[in-house]
């Protein structure tokens, strides 16, 4: 192995930049992510080999004669061999293109540049930026590189050669530096370096503190009463907000319309005990609408002879027993049906005139 040739340095970033992802390959890693991944594996390899030696049996002689294992090319080779799985084509392709760079850092530059990521990905290949910086020239993010976006948002392109450095604020924050509070939040702490926003009470649209008495303006569904925002009971309105087949249920800041029980004609609440009236086939019993058993009433529901009555929810059915023949006014047993057929007169044959 030998140090990289200077003439090749300008070409190496191009080797790292693999063809752009095809349509649908949105999860393909960026050049910076690939570089960072390689560095992370290299650093892990250094940890894994930290307590190893040449393994020849006479470690003291080997280290005196062949130099210390800690800084040796043997250890570097062991690290490089563990960087990529054999099936990981992109990793192996990148390693082949960048191996001389990694060797140069290991043998010549490690003491001067102890941070491999900064030297390799940021300064040499120029595919990443340091945290808190962005874009082709690694400019500082809004709010500075130490606390981008006041610590309350994400800097577009942070740590990469992409983005525009603008802030995407976390929930509750707004403004170019994410230092201001959105409606529904109040500033619980603010100084030259930090800004913290805390959620208002649910009744407040704007507020100066955490309770419903600190509201500057009430949220929709709430009204100011005695210096506090209180819930409006929409269900108590003169004109009901729900349909005739529903009942109104009040919730904080709003209401919901729930379906009445199937036994009700109109209702004031959930279940058959809150019906205004009962549907046909049901009658009020013990305070709630219950099915009427028409088959048990004194007045017979099924009037044909031998007919069986079966109760159903809200109604009933009349059915002849199995084997009985159904006629207009009776259910005829099998024996009677046969007799009836035998006794029925037959039409005499017509005679031809002679």
From TrEMBL:
Pfam family, one: EGF_CA
Keywords per UniProt: Calcium, Disulfide bond, EGF-like domain, Endoplasmic reticulum, Glycoprotein, Isomerase, Redox-active center, Repeat, Signal
InterPro entries: EGF, EGF-like_Ca-bd_dom, EGF-type_Asp/Asn_hydroxyl_site, EGF_Ca-bd_CS, Furin_repeat, Growth_fac_rcpt_cys_sf, LE_dom, NOTCH1_EGF-like
Subcellular location: Endoplasmic reticulum
Signal peptide region: 1-26
E.C. number: 5.3.4.1
Top-rank taxon, per record: Eukaryota
Catalytic class of the enzyme: isomerase
Region (Disordered): 331-354
One GO location term (cellular component): endoplasmic reticulum
Keyword Heme: no
Disulphides: 169-178
Start and end residues of each EGF-like domain: 137-179, 291-332
Main location: endoplasmic reticulum
Catalytic reaction annotation: Catalyzes the rearrangement of -S-S- bonds in proteins
Entry keyword annotation includes Glycoprotein: yes
Similarity comment: Belongs to the CRELD family.
The name this protein goes by in its record: protein disulfide-isomerase
């Amino acid at each position: 192995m030998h140090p990289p040739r200077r003439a090749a340095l300008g070409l190496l970033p191009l080797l790292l930049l693999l063809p752009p992802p095809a349509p649908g390959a949105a999860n393909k890693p960026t050049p910076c992510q690939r570089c960072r991944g390689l560095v992370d594996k290299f650093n892990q390899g250094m940890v894994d080999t930290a307590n190893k030696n040449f393994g020849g049996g006479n470690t003291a002689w080997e280290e005196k004669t062949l130099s210390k294992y800690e800084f040796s090319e043997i250890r570097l080779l062991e690290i490089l061999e563990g960087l990529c799985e054999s099936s990981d084509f992109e990793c192996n392709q990148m390693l082949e293109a960048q191996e001389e760079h990694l060797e140069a850092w290991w043998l010549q530059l490690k003491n001067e540049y102890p941070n491999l990521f900064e030297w390799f990905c940021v300064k040499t290949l120029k595919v990443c930026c340091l945290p808190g910086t962005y874009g082709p020239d690694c400019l500082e993010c809004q709010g500075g590189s130490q606390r981008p976006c006041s610590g309350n948002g994400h800097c577009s392109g942070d740590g990469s050669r992409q983005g525009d450095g603008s802030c995407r604020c976390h929930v509750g924050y707004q403004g170019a530096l994410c230092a201001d509070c959105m409606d529904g939040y109040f500033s619980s702490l603010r100084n030259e370096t930090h800004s913290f926003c805390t959620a208002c009470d649910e009744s407040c649209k704007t507020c100066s503190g955490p309770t419903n008495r600190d509201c500057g303006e009430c949220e929709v569904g709430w009204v100011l009463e005695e210096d506090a925002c209180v819930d409006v009971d929409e269900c108590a309105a003169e004109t009901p907000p729900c349909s005739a087949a529903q009942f109104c249920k009040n919730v904080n800041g709003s209401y919901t319309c729930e379906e009445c029980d199937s036994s009700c004609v109109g209702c004031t609440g959930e279940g058959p005990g809150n019906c205004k009236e009962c549907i046909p086939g049901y009658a009020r019993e013990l305070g709630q609408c219950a099915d009427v058993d028409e088959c048990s009433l004194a007045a017979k529901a099924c009037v044909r002879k031998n007919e069986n009555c079966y109760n159903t929810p809200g109604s009933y059915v009349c059915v002849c027993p199995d084997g009985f023949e159904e006629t207009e006014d009776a259910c005829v047993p099998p024996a009677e049906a046969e007799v009836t057929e035998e006794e029925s007169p037959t039409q005499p044959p017509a005679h031809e005139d002679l």
